[in-house]
Each structure stands twice: as structure tokens, then as C-alpha cells.
From TrEMBL:
Gene3D superfamilies, A to Z: Rhodopsin 7-helix transmembrane proteins
SUPFAM superfamilies: Family A G protein-coupled receptor-like (SSF81321)
PANTHER family linked: 7-TRANSMEMBRANE DOMAIN RECEPTOR C.ELEGANS, SEVEN TM RECEPTOR
Pfam family membership, one: 7TM_GPCR_Str
Source species of the chain: Mesorhabditis belari
Domain of life per record: Eukaryota
Residues annotated as transmembrane: 6-27, 39-62, 82-103, 124-146, 194-215, 235-262, 274-294
Keywords (A to Z) from UniProt: Membrane, Transmembrane, Transmembrane helix
Name listed for the protein in its UniProt record: G protein-coupled receptor
InterPro entries reported for this sequence: 7TM_GPCR_serpentine_rcpt_Str (IPR019428)
Length: 335
């Protein structure tokens, strides 16, 4: 088993377990409004699927100064076509992360400021919330299919690199990615497709930054009680932390894969999915550590487990000393 496969199994597995625990924390918590808890549970389910998808696909990324290639190391054993489907699925999983982040930020903006509240309070608004991620993902999928059809020319010299690194022989199928230029000149379809994907991911991230910045200004100037201000500041802190995590686990890996070859970062490209799959773990840490209600609930759960363990240990020790005649209570032993 390749060491990258081990990492892309172990790291998502930790994320899976932590998100199951977070779901339980949210489900059993009674200190947070049910609407926000429900939204967080949906987000947790997505993050769970994100980690599970990576474990299933086992995506590998390779680039050079001509372009980049994505394929599935696990699914390629079932055929090159399955590897390509896995690469497309990994693209969509990655794309959905941007969309969920934007919807979450927009939801917090509407509930805190009271502006554009119709988006989440009316049927038409909810239709927009549901339809937009589907439309965004469909556009992303269209760009992948239209500009990254697998061919020998589109694979380039990375076929040799992939064989040397993973002992996988890709030819005319089994991958997605683009070849931006070759001996015949610039391949405009591939280049424009990569630019479009970069623009789509970048614009969503920039919208998140802008909305979070507007929220920060609103919380500082709004007239409200101290308790309300602290609660709103906590939510802005969560959004800011999630922005940083999105930048580290999505924007940087995406940029590294598509454009890293031009910057001499090809040796780091295979580690980009490892960085990206820290997202499920980081997301749990942010929510548990920054949301006071969930932090308290987590402490309650661990406190209960520790008490149960201590109680079992006490009863076990008591039963041993009472049954085993060779165990002596030193406090009552004759001196």
C-alpha cells in the first residue's frame, strides 16, 4: 500500500469519528437554537461524506510545468473508467465545500443583521438556497467534462511520472486534468477551463471574506445588549476561523494542484489531498472549541465517561480485595 494511501485513509478516518461525535454533541445539546443546530447537523453530515468520499476514491494529484492530472489510485484497479469517475467525484466533493461554506456565511449574515432574511424565511428563498449549490456543482462538472476529456496529449509526460510514483499506467482514460501547453503551443481549451475553475472557487471564497468582514463591522457598531453582542462576536469568530481553514485546506491545495507546476512546486502537489483532508478534523475543532454550548456539552460527555470509568475501577478494586484473600488492606494491616 502506498504511503499516501495510508495517509488518505487514516486522516479522513479521524475526521469521520470526530464528525460522528460532533453530530452526537449537537443532537443532544439543548443550549443552541434548533434552527442553527439543524443547519450544523447538515454541515456535519456533508463533512462526514467529504471524508468518506476521500477514503473511497483515494485521489492522487500530479502536476508539472505543463499542467496537472487527477486520478483514483483505489478505483483504477477496477478499470481506468472507474478511476476517471472517482476523479470527477473528488472534484464535486471539493466544489461542494466552497458552496456549503458560502451558504453558512450567508445564513449567519441574514440572521444576525436581519437583512435579506427572505432568503431563509420564504419558499422562493429556500429554493434559491437549494438550487444554487446544485447549479454551481453542475457548472463545475460541465467545465470538467468539456475541458478535461482524457487523451494522451492531455496527459503529457505526467504518464511517466505517475507510473514511476504509483506504478499505474494511464493512457487515454482514467483521469481528469489539463495540459496547458505542449510542443504545438498553448492549448487554450485546457487553459481557459483551469482559469474558469480557479475563478469559480476564488469568487466564492472572496464572497465569504466580504460577508464576514461586513458582519464584523455590524457587530462592532450595532446597538444591542452585551450578551447579544458577545453571542454575535462568537459567531463572527467561528466564521473567521472557518475562512482560515478553507484557505488552508481548499484554496491553497487547489492553487497548488492547478498552478503549482509553474511555480516549481510539483514535488508538493501529491500532498495536496492530505492537506485538503484535514478539513473535517479542523471543522470539528472549530465548532467544539468556539461554540460555548457545544464545548460545555463535550465536557459533560467526557466528565460522565470519566465518572463511569472511575466508578467501574472502584468497584473492580473493591471486588478484588474482598474476594482475593492474598490482597491486604495496608491501612488495617498489623505493623
Amino acid at each position: 500500500m502506498h504511503y499516501l494511501t495510508l495517509l488518505l485513509t487514516a486522516i479522513p478516518a479521524v475526521g469521520l469519528l470526530l464528525n460522528i461525535f460532533l453530530f452526537y454533541v449537537i443532537w443532544t445539546n439543548r443550549r443552541v437554537a434548533s434552527a442553527y443546530s439543524g443547519f450544523l447537523m447538515i454541515s456535519t453530515i456533508y463533512t462526514f461524506c467529504y471524508a468518506l468520499g476521500t477514503m473511497t476514491v483515494d485521489p492522487m494529484f500530479v502536476n508539472d510545468n505543463h499542467g496537472y492530472t487527477i486520478f483514483s489510485l483505489r478505483l483504477v484497479t477496477f478499470g481506468a473508467e472507474w478511476s476517471r469517475y472517482g476523479a470527477i467525484a473528488q472534484n464535486l466533493i471539493f466544489c461542494a465545500g466552497f458552496v456549503f461554506s458560502f451558504v453558512h456565511t450567508l445564513y449567519r449574515y441574514c440572521t444576525i443583521t436581519g437583512k435579506m432574511s427572505f432568503i431563509f424565511d420564504t419558499k422562493l428563498g429556500l429554493f434559491f438556497v437549494i438550487f444554487s449549490p446544485i447549479a454551481f456543482s453542475a457548472l463545475w462538472l460541465f467545465m470538467i467534462i468539456a475541458t478535461q476529456e482524457p487523451t494522451v496529449e492531455r496527459l503529457g509526460d505526467r504518464a511517466r511520472m505517475i507510473y514511476e510514483m504509483f506504478q499505474v499506467n494511464l493512457t487515454t482514460d482514467g483521469f481528469t486534468g489539463g495540459q496547458f501547453w505542449d510542443t504545438d503551443g498553448i492549448r487554450w481549451l485546457d487553459l481557459n477551463g483551469a482559469l474558469a475553475l480557479s475563478f469559480m472557487s476564488g469568487i466564492i471564497f472572496q464572497l465569504n471574506v466580504f460577508i464576514t468582514w461586513k458582519l464584523h463591522g455590524h457587530v462592532k457598531t450595532v446597538v444591542c445588549s452585551q450578551a447579544t453582542r458577545e453571542a454575535q462576536a462568537q459567531l463572527v469568530a467561528i466564521l473567521t476561523a472557518q475562512l482560515c481553514v478553507t484557505c488552508i485546506t481548499e484554496i491553497i491545495p487547489c492553487t497548488m494542484v492547478i498552478w503549482g507546476g509553474f511555480l516549481g512546486l510539483s514535488s508538493l502537489c501529491p500532498y495536496s489531498p492530505v492537506i485538503a483532508n484535514l478539513f473535517p478534523t479542523f471543522n470539528v475543532c472549530i465548532i467544539v472549541l468556539l461554540v460555548k454550548a457545544f464545548r460545555l456539552r463535550t465536557l459533560e460527555i467526557f466528565s460522565f465517561c470519566i465518572k463511569i470509568k472511575a466508578k467501574e475501577t472502584f468497584h473492580s478494586a473493591y471486588s478484588i480485595t474482598s474476594i482475593n484473600p492474598f490482597v491486604v488492606d495496608k491501612g488495617n494491616a498489623p505493623q
